[in-house]
Structures are given as C-alpha cells and as structure tokens.
Amino acid sequence: VPLVRRRLRAAGRRREREALAGRVVALCETAGGELRAGGQPGHALAYAARRTEALGPEEARVLAAVGFGGDVPEALRAAARREGAEGLAGLAACWQVAVDRGAGLADGLDRLEAALREQHERREGLRAELAGAWATVAVLAALPVAGIGMGAALGAEPLRVMLHTPAGGACLLLGGALEAAGLWWAARIVRGGGDAE
Predict the structure, then answer these.
(1) How far apart are the first and last CA of the chain?
(2) Is the pLDDT of residue 100 over 80?
(3) Do 41 and 96 meet the contact criterion of CB atoms below 8 Å apart?
(4) 197 contact partners, CB below 8 Å, separation of at least 6
(5) H helices within the chain, ranges in order?
(6) How far is CA 27 from CA 37, 105, 151, 184, in A?
(7) pLDDT over 70 for what percent of the chain?
C-alpha cells in the first residue's frame, strides 16, 4: 500500500508538472499573439498571465514588476523555480534581450513556444515508447501470483506448502526476495530510460 500510494502521488505530481508546462506554452503563445496584434509587452504579458494562470503564486509579483517598472526577468525567473514552469526562465531571457538590445519580443516568444512544444512532444513520445516496458514489468510482477493460482487450480495446495512447511517457507522468502529484486531492477532500467529525456 505505501508503494502504491507513493506511485500515485508521483503520477499526480507528474500530471501537475505537465499541466503547468502546457500553461507556460499557452502563456508564450497568448503573449506573442497580443504583441503581434500591436499590444505593449507589459500589457501582453499581463493579459496572457491572467488568461493562462501559468505564473501561479508568483503572478502578483510578476504583474507588479510589469505594472510598476520592476525587474520583470527576475520575477519570471522566480516563477520558473516551480516544477513544470522551467519555460518561464526562457521567457525571462527573451524579455531581458528585448529590453537590453531592443530585439523583438514576439519573435523570441515564437521561438520559445516552438522549443517548449517540441520538448513536450519528445517527452510524450518517450513516454509512449516506455509504456511497453512498463507493461512488461507489470507482467513480471503478476507471474508469481499466476503460478500460485495455477498450482491451486491443479490441486497442489501451494499456499499450504509455502505457509506450513519449513521448505515452503524458505522458498517463499527466497522467491519473494528475488521477485522484489527483479522488479526493482526492471523498474530502475525503465526509469533510467525515462530520465534520459
């Protein structure tokens, strides 16, 4: 149960991280659209931030920096510290270059949006490729239970042997340890492939 709970929490954090990354992409897209429509950078960022909710708890700080002439790139970098919001660091860099060098912010946002979308698609493709490996790990986990079920169906009474005889108990402990080690190793290999993204 603790392992399943841990796994479910990790999956929930991953979904939240991916949703936030999607909102950052939408923020770049919306702000870029506003800039191309003739809006001022501060107004475009404020509009996009309110519409996409990508800045989260840092939204007030970023909007205050935009409205009162504060350090917008630093406020965006602070917002980028959350998991999934790393793309805001790219937005901070685009803003910094646009302010310091007079470069077009809309062009930078377009490139940033394209790069973030490509990164998201690459992550999704890798996750799809790893789905088969995770299915293999699940099958490996189910094999001992299936073996016990087949033995019981054949009348061999595997549970009685494992739980009431010394040799069966030793086999149960050794088999359980080997099963746990095998699952840990297989999951580690698959996670390693996922971390390579």
Answers:
(1) 29
(2) no
(3) no
(4) 122, 123, 126
(5) 2-36, 41-52, 59-67, 72-79, 87-101, 105-153, 158-164, 166-195
(6) 15, 13, 58, 39
(7) 96
